Amino acid sequence: MPKVLVFEDDEKRFKLLQAGADAAELIRFEPLEDDRETYEHLLREVQSNKYSLLALDLDLSKYTVGVVRRETIRGVASDHYMPLCAYSANSSITAAGSREHAVRPLTLAPGEFGGANQIILDGTKSEKEVGRTISQLATGFESVANIVTEDRVRRGRLLHQILQTPSVAERRVEQYIWGTPAVSAFSGAEADSLKRMVTSVGYWVVNCLLPFPGALLDEVAAAVYLKVGASTFSAGRSHLETAEYQGPFRSLGTYWWRDLLDDLVAEGGHDNGIEFFRGKDLDVERAVCVKCDQVAEFVSFVTGDSLCRTHAVPLRIWLPAGADLVRAEEDEAEHLEFWI
Ligand SMILES: [Zn+2]
After folding, report:
1. Contact between 165 and 193 (Cβ < 8 Å)
2. 228 pairs with which residues across the strands?
3. Is 161 exposed, middle or buried, given 0-12, 13-18 or 19+ CB atoms closer than 10 A?
4. How far is the CA of 231 from the centre of ligand 1 (A)?
5. What are the chain's domains?
């Protein structure tokens, strides 16, 4: 089981996080006598290779030792290429909506989604759910590390090996690398540091690839892409198993390779998802926009609702080039742009 070093000043909350963490062992950081000893202890722990992830409470005001502050911990994490996730009980930190993704990258500055040096967790979730997500992230980083350190990995195809990208989906995944130099640097060249590679790739998968439907589709996006409503999709999703994403961080949610969904539909001789599900003897309800009854074609990044062409506007924030199913409703888009 991977280990996570947790910076949490409230023991009760730590116990709750621990109760939710079913896939990793959470260990609480204990400050020592004074600042200097504590800082050295912190460095030793971070450099020890014991941990797959650091988890940071954004409010550490109950710690009496001054050095245990989020700025210090972020600095140490980034100096040593240690993956870091941050959480807060304060829901205003991730206030902009309710899109159901375990990790919401909304608090990152534009352009940071792919290259960010942290993962921000959804502050609207309970401690147990946060604990669970932390443990799933640790598992993800651990599995990236396992693949990266295997000798059989061929340089240049590293990302696709990590993700287990089906060959039909490679081009679309590569669109998510553009503009994220921390990751594109590894796609061809020999890596200078395995640790740095593991951390950068993990951040990229969680902050850039999974939350923006395009190459990989979550439940809402997959239903919209296949042109069916949520109830048809959940009744028929077992027929899509072979298209499911099996790479690192898969426990954060179910994702399907869009290009493999295309293959499934085409293999059955169908033109679209509606025909595909009809072919499975399902009563098919069509995907419709939440604002009107037109056919839904996009997913709102803010609310996770399905939107038609009229009600969906492009977001003027940095998005991965391949994220062509992501839109927002007009008023949400304005809010989001203001907020970011
Ligand atoms: Zn509409």
Report:
1. no
2. 286
3. middle
4. 19
5. 1-209 (3.40.50.2300), 216-339 (no CATH)
At 337, the pLDDT band (50, 70, 90 cuts) reads: low
150, 135 contact by CB (below 8 A): no
pLDDT in tens, 163-206: 999 999 999 998 887 766 666 555 444 444 778 888 988 998 99
- What per-residue confidence (pLDDT) applies to 278? 96
At residue 27, the 3 state secondary structure works out as strand
Overall residue count recorded for the chain in this entry: 340
For the sheet with 53-57, list strands across it: 25-28, 3-7, 53-57, 84-87, 119-120
Distance 282 CA to ligand 1 centre (A): 25
Cα 337 to ligand 1 centroid, rounded to whole Å: 21
Give the global pTM. 0.87
**SS3 per residue for 36-63:** HHHHHHHHHHHHCCCCCEEEEECCCCCC
CA of 224 to the centre of ligand 1 (A): 13
Q: Which of 53, 111, 112, 115 shows the shortest CA–CA distance to 87?
A: 53
